[in-house]
Amino acid sequence: MYLFNHKLVTVSTLCLVLFLTACGSNNKNDKADKQVLNWNEKTELPTIDPSLAMDGTSFDMLNNSMDGLYRLGKKSKITPGLAKSAKVSSDGLKYTFQLRRNTKWSNGDTVTAKDFVYSWRRTVDPKTNSGYAYLFDGIKNATDISNEKKAVDSLGIKAVGKYKLEVSLDKQIPYFKLLMGFPIFFPQNEKAVQKYGNKYGTASKYMVYNGPFKMSGWTGTNLNWKLIKNPTYWDKKAVKLSQINFKVNKSTTTSYNLYQSRKLDETELSAEQAKALNKKKGYQVLPSATTYYLGFNKENHSGLENKKIRQAISYAIDRKQFVNKVLGNTGVVSKGIVSSKLASYQGKDFADEAQTTAGVSYDKDKAQRLLKEGLNEIGKKELKLNLLTDDTDANNKNVEFLQSQIEEHLDGKVKISTTSVPFKTRLARSTAGDYDLVLQYWGADFADPITFLQIFSGDNPSKTGGWKDVTFDKLIKDSMTVHSMDQGKRWNDMLQASKILSEQQVIAPLYQAKTPAMIPPKVKGLIMNTAGVSNNWKYTYISE
């Protein structure tokens, strides 16, 4: 769940790029290393605790070192995991899974139904403080447990013997099986959690694995680590790669140079790089259902509690100019919080139907008028706000543009300072509400609009910013309860909810990410999804 920004590629630089490509084209990997993949990461790894993970890097590592009931295959379709079979009751409120026998954890323990029971209870337990516990809403008693109204052991999941798992729901969940392919629902080994205590998931050695690969070499703070083929994995014959090496490079200039010298097999590109290299072999535009937006803190009395001021800031941003001049091939203007081409009903894309003139439009005159009215309402003549972001080259370039747009188009009456911090720090500060404005993003956890919309409802821990709306909350609740199996009514609930977000300017959607990248043709079988976990390396292999 990442950006770009980089110096212009000059003619001489491009010539050097082409020269390096030609020079490197005859190199061959050593046969012993043929099934080793070298992958670039844009951000540091915060955690590999399934209950606490909240970002794309963590989920990628969990998705490839762990197995759940299902895995997400191509186009976010469910593929086999630990569930050998599944039965659903006639009312859709009970799922019974038969698990594969004799699958192993890396510590030698057998993976059993109790591991799922333990994991789910641990995640919904308020003491764990999981940012994703809300995804369990609909599983019997989950919401009451999260709100400390019922005991953790009342959760609707039960082990019937060693290999049979029963899940009971309070309501039908139309996307239930998609959820089961998301790492937050994967099993956890109770012995390991108790053994490692607070260290669990904070380094590769404080974890056990049951997936295609095992993690190695991550200390919790370093910027390189490995996934190594797991010899005890139940489907190890399908796994071709012996090892995946990861290196965090926040600059695409650095990562592309490493790609050119064949030390990396993947690198994302800046807008300038994409323009220069889009005809080169290996160039791809990777799928993404990720929306980047400005978050407003409405609780710290900075002035952003005023709707007109939030609207003024949003109307002051020329998104088309942002995309064309700054992002280039790495983004398209957002129509709202829900990304385009994520979900459709009766042939209509949700993002198209939910789009309004409010929320994402550029109108300098309207911005200035709204700001004047808003400042009068709060009794101020100007505002000083800080904009928080991740410390990547791309994000730094993006906030420079946003800073200039807001200050220039609002006649200097809103002055923006910027703070650039490591991803882990930005995530922590966002969650704690320690910001005025924050450039952040949300990637779809599964292919349904609710994955974006529900983070703004109630007291969802992922929401941040302090906004609440009774009508919005009811629409989200109705879409997940009384209308959960009526596709038309549920669709309408979500459309109305999305329009409320836009009209109230809860956030300022900016753009939907497109990710230009270089991946050499020798990398085969890679599964990359727009929703859910991005990368599935289980079937990836190297073929020169």
From TrEMBL:
Signal peptide annotation: 1-24
UniProt GO molecular function: peptide transmembrane transporter activity
Keyword Signal set for record: yes
Key words of the record: Peptide transport, Protein transport, Signal, Transport
Pfam families documented for this protein: SBP_bac_5
UniProt xrefs under SUPFAM superfamilies: Periplasmic binding protein-like II
GO cellular-component term (any): ATP-binding cassette (ABC) transporter complex
Keyword Transport: yes
InterPro entries with a match to the protein in the record: Peptide/Ni-bd, SBP_5, SBP_5_dom
Cellular compartments annotated: Cell envelope
Domain Solute-binding protein family: 77-461
GO biological process terms held by the UniProt record: peptide transport
Recorded family membership: Belongs to the bacterial solute-binding protein 5 family.
Protein name per UniProt: Oligopeptide ABC transporter, periplasmic oligopeptide-binding protein OppA (TC 3.A.1.5.1)
Organism, as annotated: Ligilactobacillus acidipiscis
